[in-house]
Design goal:
alpha+beta, 2 domains, 12 helices
């Protein structure tokens, strides 16, 4: 046994491993290449002025992203940089996905798949209305990238074709790291490396499943089901009601539809009221959007997309000269959900 463990794995084993993983390489490669295909071939989702702009989708990731929230927030507050980031990301997905399917520099592309999947996992792993959509895509991409890095491209790969043509660079050590073929490991360290890498991926799986969804213990939750709006900086200044809305939960495919803004005094008397029809006609100069995803008037309500943040101003003459005391600001969604914030005038 000691003698076997001191030797490297037979190169034929890598050849078979790559062959067995061929379908995995094709499917995972297409999931990344198809992102480019959808955004630029079937539709133009890199046009910042049209519906479906990928930058707005990226903005949806912001409220509950893990670890990279500052990066996302910086980009969605700098639209020019965001466009370049989305364009670059799309091109990288196209290159990585296509070469991964073709099996050209397979191990280098598997590192790309691993990195892209980690990005999806930590930014959007909390999203998914009917199941844990983005989390599943991310974590399976991580596992697939690791697996294909170990196996290489196998028989049905351009790496194998280049090796069969006996090009000199395919015999270099760097090609086994970036392309395909036998990795320069003895069996015993390889076994330990595979076990450690797999254990780490399992830890990431369980940790993110618990962090985003409570999927390991406790109460299972899904932040993509019901809209949630946070209210901040609420104040009454002369004849103006000012406050900031930030939508942090709910489905990413449609907005929260705000159909009511009400201000009451401590006795429950209504001081100010706006219904859905009023909000659908709100002057857009009274909406100060912070991010790419924009709060805007809709046909019958005020539409608040996931991840959007905006300062709102409502003018009402009755607000001027209100007596000291506490006032309750209440926002009402079309679903019947309400959110409240207390405003103090001293």
């Amino acid at each position: 046994m000691t003698e076997i463990n001191s030797k490297q794995v037979n190169p034929a084993s890598y050849h078979l491993a790559g062959l067995f993983a061929f379908s995995l390489r094709l499917v995972v490669g297409w999931t990344y290449f198809s992102a480019f295909w959808r955004r630029l071939v079937l539709e133009n989702k890199l046009d910042a002025d049209t519906a479906g702009y990928i930058g707005e989708k990226f903005n949806h990731f912001l409220p509950n992203a893990l670890g990279i929230k500052p990066v996302i927030e910086h980009l969605v507050t700098h639209p020019d940089q965001l466009w370049w980031a989305m364009a670059t990301f799309t091109i990288v997905e196209a290159i990585v996905g296509l070469l991964f399917m073709l099996g050209l520099f397979t191990r280098l592309m598997s590192m790309g798949v691993f990195s892209l999947a980690m990005g999806i996992l930590f930014s959007a792993g909390w999203l998914g209305t009917t199941c844990l959509d983005e989390w599943q895509i991310g974590i399976l991409g991580v596992a697939a990238g690791f697996t294909i890095f170990l196996s290489g491209g196998g028989k049905y790969s351009l790496d194998n074709w280049l090796s069969s043509k006996r090009y000199s660079f395919t015999n270099r050590k760097w090609f086994s790291w970036l392309g395909s073929g036998a990795l320069p490991f003895h069996t015993k360290p390889l076994y330990k490396g595979v076990f450690a890498g797999s254990a780490l991926i399992l830890f990431i799986t369980l940790f993110t499943n618990q962090y985003f969804h409570g999927g390991v213990w406790g109460t299972l939750h899904n932040k993509s089901v019901k809209p949630k709006i946070e209210i901040a900086d609420a104040a009454i200044v002369q004849d103006e009601l000012r406050f900031t809305v930030y939508r942090v939960e709910g489905a990413d495919v449609y907005g929260s539809f705000l159909i009511g803004i009400t201000l009451t005094d401590q006795n429950g008397e209504v001081i100010l009221s706006r219904n859905g029809s009023d909000l659908s006609r709100i002057d857009e100069t009274n909406i100060n959007n912070k991010y790419v995803a924009k709060v805007k008037p809709g046909k019958h309500s005020l539409v608040i997309p996931l991840g959007s943040k905006a300062g709102l101003t409502v003018r009402e003459q009755t607000l001027a000269g209100l007596p000291r005391g506490s006032y309750q600001l209440t926002l009402t969604d079309i679903s019947g959900i309400t959110w409240s914030e207390t405003i103090y005038i001293s």
